[in-house]
Amino acid sequence: MDDAMTTPRTPEGQQPRHEPHPSHDRGLEFDLSTLMSRRSLGMFLGAGTAAALAACTPGGSSSAPSGSPSTASAAATATASATTTATATAPSGSATSTPTVTRAIAECGVEIPQETAGPYPGDGSNGPNVLEASGVVRQDITSSFGTSTTTADGVPLTVTLTLLDNSNGCVPLAGAAVYAWHCDKEGRYSLYDSGLENENFLRGVQEADANGQVTFKTIYPGAYNGRWPHIHFEVFESMNNATAAGQVLAVSQLAMTDAACREVYASAGYETSARNFPNTTLQSDNVFGEDGGIYQLATMSGSVSGGYTAGLNVTI
Known about the structure:
The chain has helices spanning 27-36, 50-56, 72-77, 239-243, 258-265, 271-276, and strands at 82-86, 101-105, 156-165, 171-172, 177-181, 203-207, 213-219, 230-236, 248-255, 299-303, 307-315. By secondary structure, it is an alpha+beta fold. The protein has a single domain, classed as Aromatic compound dioxygenase (Protocatechuate 3,4-Dioxygenase, subunit A). Strands 3, 4, 7, 10 and 11 form a 5-stranded mixed beta sheet that branches. A hairpin with a 3-residue loop joins strand 10 (299-303) and strand 11 (307-315). The protein is globular. Residues 151-227 form the Intradiol ring-cleavage dioxygenases domain. Pfam families: Dioxygenase_C.
């Protein structure tokens, strides 16, 4: 895999926060070389307006109010700011308690934090490139496409990202595209992990609608050592740019909530994640730990039996 490394696309002078490599039996040499080759992207980013978050993020949550879909006028005129508090207690068996996480709902102008794409992006930056494959544009990303139809099993999850244009009063960023990817219920990534090199499940591209929203149907991601459960995403200016693996507008990650993780990982099939989850808190995570993930913590609702929804405003 190291021979396929390419130079990451990085705006000059900008560095994202880096995530450690999952413990996937690849060795220190692989980890170091891959980390050094990760793409880095710019601007320190945050979240959309309070009104836009309430309007744009689907689903209810114990830590944030739910609301109806966003509209351009609501997003453009919202100027209020507020904070809400989400309790993120330490996972059972962890050595230290986890402090309360304050979820920030900022005024328009605070953008989503830029993060590393991680060691398994599948976007051509370090080898595999799923973005140029026929079939990657899809809403349901649970199964592989192309030469395989393998399906990733797990608790159903629907993820909606609402893209907001910070340079234009945080109106919906219609027509932009999002590439989203994450690990399976055991913490493994398609295209990279042993036995999954010919699979491309849990990866897909969607175009933002008039409300700036993209929605993916997937499964709840697992937990692996060294990282808090998360979903990666890249935002592109257009669908054509995304499917050509062109220049990205933003690279970030969505953090799952503590409560949902506890519920999901207690269910059948997530035994590996249940063992790994207590080893990393949101505050000790190498990506979200800098600010506790306050601008990236999803608004979530649902149940193991009925599936979950997760939403996040992505101000660019």
